[in-house]
Amino acid sequence: MNGTGHMDEEILHRAPLGGQIREFVIDAIMSGELRAGDRVVAKALAKRLGVSQAPVREAIRDLVLLGFLDTEPFKGTSVRSFTEKELQEVYTVRAALESLAARLAATRMTEEDVRSLQDTLDRMIQAAQEQDEEEMVRLDNEFHETILQVSGNKLLHQVWQTVQFGYWTIVTARVSTYDLEELARRHESLLEALKSGEPQRAMAAMQCHIEDLGKPPRNLETTSGTA
After folding, report:
1. Structurally, what CATH architecture does the domain formed by 84-214 represent?
2. Which of 2, 48, 192, 206 has the fewest Cβ atoms surrounding its Cβ within 10 A?
């Protein structure tokens, strides 16, 4: 991670600090600034961000648990690459959680919710057509998180946020056999299922939407971990 200065420190003006640092490292992985195998050193990162090493170590521990970093004795901590099996495990768990959210959301969707999802999808497709991967991923996550919110199950939403499933979207974008516009347009049938108001249809559509991405990826030597 190159560069120091005021802009990095400005990122940390929000709380809690450990979460801020975790997001900073994930953003660096998502942008390609940190690639598979790159070391993440607490002392250097703390110096760059102008903070003590304690919250940096906390963030690194969290990122190891979330699966973005690897720690090996005598080798330190580095950005990990992902095997096909590991990605499939992520998709399987995410599909189970989000298919439940879709089942709950289908009976609670208002016209305003539908308009919001359609607007997000339209912007997602536009970003994909412009090859703006970062914006497309952001909107993809916004689409899925809206469904979690509409589900009305706060614990379900909290678990999704805690596991940081949204960050795995960038993994999918980079290893998927689909191009960006295909990834975006896959949400059209999902939205139709949600609009139907049929819980089982919405649940099945979400499960298929996510699990299909685990078949098999184009390239597993990626820097990081889009659905």
Report:
1. Up-down Bundle (1.20)
2. 2
